[in-house]
UniProtKB/TrEMBL annotation:
Name of protein: Gp5/Type VI secretion system Vgr protein OB-fold domain-containing protein
SUPFAM superfamilies noted in UniProt: gp5 N-terminal domain-like
Organism of derivation: Treponema phagedenis
Domain of life: Bacteria
Amino acid sequence: MKNGKEFLQSLLDALLPNRAAPVLAKVIKAYEGAGSNKYACDVQVLTAGTLEETDQIIAEVPISPIWAGKKKRGIYAIPPVGQIVIVSFISWNSAFPFIAGIWADEYEADDFKAGQFVITDGDGLKIIADSDEKKITIDTGKAQVMVNGDKIAIKNGSKSLFTVLDTLIQNLIGMTTTGAPVKHTVDPASIQKFMQDKQDLSLVMEA
């Protein structure tokens, strides 16, 4: 007569003959390019706890994207080779694997705050969408483009496009001529127009 454990094992074998619990795996190949079933990886199953490699390889495991829709809409970022991922199975059926996420113990998060959506390559390139401040920043590590509410800013080191344009307008206002017969300056009507340009610039850009 079977004991309780053996009975439960037999019942599971009968109900779920191809059952498979979630496993940890290492990405050994990442697919690229557009098309159906392209957002996938080949993975090598690891032993939980020790992360030792096993002989089990699962090919073309689809990735569960952050968001996706019809007509190629979506957010795509293929895991790099060597990344440890969590592989789950639909209805615990080994015939239907998918990459559910990145294993938390095997990556280091970049700086972020609540209310932010951050995309970074970890080497200076960063895109930040801040829902609280209504601000989007694109930073290459050398230059920045920011959309802050109803204003934009473009910076490169210590210089900003706003500062450059504002200085240019100011220089035009103070422009004079040299040589005979007499020195000329910008006429008052033109100066007024330039001042309006400075005001308009401050409405759409910031330093």
